[in-house]
Input
Amino acid sequence: MARLKRQTRRAVTAPSKTAAWTMFGSAIDGVIVLAVGLAILSVSLSASTRGSMLAVLGFGWVPVGAWLICATLNLRYNSRSLARHWRWWVSTGAAAAIAVGALSFFRADHGVLAQATLGGHWGSVLGGTPLPLGLLKLAAIALCTPLLVAPQRIGSAYFRALHAIGLTLHRVALSMYSAVYQLGCHLKPRLRLALNRRYRRRWLRQMRLQLSQSLRAKQWKRIHAARAVGASRSRKPAVPVDPALWTSTPPGTIPDLELTELPAPQDLEAEEGALTKSKLSSKWRLPSLELLSVAEPHEPPQAQLQQMARHIESTLEDHGVTVEVKDIKAGPRIVRFGLVPGWVSKRSDAGRAAASDSTIERSRVKVQSILTREKDLALALKTPYLRIEAPVPGEALVGLEVPNPSPTKVPLRSVMGTPMFRKIAAKGGLPIALGQDTGGNSVAMDLAVLPHVLIAGATGSGKSVCINSVVASLLLTKPPDQLRMLMVDPKRVELTPFNGIPHLIAPVIVDADDVNTALRALMREMFRRYKQMEEVGTRNISGYNAKARERIPYLVPIVDELADLMMVGGFEVEQNLVRLAQLGRATGIHLVLATQRPSVNVVTGLLKANIPARVAFAVASQVDSRVILDTIGAEKLLGKGDMLLLNHDSPKPRRVQGTLVTDEEIDKLVEFWRNQKGPPLPVISIEEARDEEEDEVDDNTLEQARELAIRNPRLSASFLERRLKIGSRRAAQIVELLEDEGLILSQ
Output
């Protein structure tokens, strides 16, 4: 009996020893492979990729990578031991998770791990702060792992209450493991084929062949370019031809030339794609969306919205207008009810003549009858902010827009995380997050396509927040070597916090007298870019960047208050802005203009004609709304980000709730760019350039000034600017000449 027990004990302990030696050997192999893999990754990957990978797990890559490599090696060489001793792998996986969670309690002094932890973001999930909660998580993992691995062997009174739960988890884990094991058995031949030496050798041969083909393609392009240059300079061929080739062929025939070095067309296309991809890469690191706050979950009250819909139908029914609410779309602050006009009965002319054989006809309710009941609906719904859109573009509905009974905010991060925004950013454009429409759909547009934006609205309507959202969207998606900005802020408080970021070509301009100098500098930069594109033979900035070695960055001038500039600069400011709006699109210059006084003196017709994209916030009257949008509607907005968006995609203004970006988020974003040091950027000077031709006054202008001086001996330089439509410097020069001639009195 004792001998039988000893044999049984040996039979039980033998596999465990074998599994232990297998685990030990796999661990040694895994640590060696992990060290080699980390060394290769540290050399091959870029700094940004290494930083992102380090932020995920930190130093937790050591235990996790060792565990994964050991499991892969066992699956490759001894899959039966992996299935037989699965409890070892679950236990070691839990130990690796506990190690990663323990590393999250510590932080580095500087670098990526200073923002994250030594365990990375995943370690913060397993452990993290506060310390008691992290310890509680790790203790839960340590206590639940034995329940999952060996629930039958736990006999203490402390775990008896969890015995049933452990058995259930054990069964679920066994079923999942069996499914995964069957899948692994199915994929085992393919995995073995992928790890086979022959396959690796064949793959290396293919890579060498492709590399040689690409090198031959480059060599052939150089030969072709040399031939073209040689043919243009002389009649002699660039590459000598063997004379024996013609003597060995019969007369009247052309010898066959073996062009074995000519690559396939797809190789040339792949080379061009690789060249373009290398040009698009930047050495600057973009900030993460983690700097922005996360949107709070919100569900619109459906019962209350259905009650409002029935109330709208009954109110119009009381006034003899039959409608049916077919569609309800709840946005952040606006609910749009889609009204379908009903049917009314009427008697025909024959029926009026003879009531005995009268016939009844049906007709639709007129849309005008719904529009005339706007005030009755506002009284019934107890709101003065009511807007009717008839009809809704693209739908057979009459849109009734009512304030949402439970309004919410639209954080910037909720719009930047949408596929629409990411698609624009992937194309290399200038994505800007504007907000959400009345249906709750995110609205993001490409500034390079618009190509300029005019933002207008009364004080406190959300105009400055919209500008900050536009700037934040650009800073989160474009490095300074691809985007430069020039900011003008006469109020000195809205855009000055952005001072110090590398995207600015100069500090924020706060003096309105310096704006004309900056605009003239932008025009010189625009004409310089046109000359560069003319030399390369391209039409726009995208074509130039695809061909030239050095990319031209986009240039976005942002003006916070246009009315102050028009008051000080007058005609010259308008002339420079219109010139930039007309010609700046092809060179990558896109204007963002904002004003709180939308009058015809500020938003002129010539400026509106060159800026098709306009954003109107709440205004005081219908006159201001017509100045901005050429139609009414902005006077009925709610304020605080409620806007009407007009661009070339929609014939009618679209109602949007603007995004919200807080001062704390702006400070984090500015601090990120201030602390980052990248390669030097090209200097774009906005200082006044002295040009002798511009300083000269032509005879015709001087003669007109003399005639004005004869009629008005006390004329000033500003008077000459308005009458002769010239710049301030030239007007001052003419005044000095007239004073020397004695035609006007000295000031």
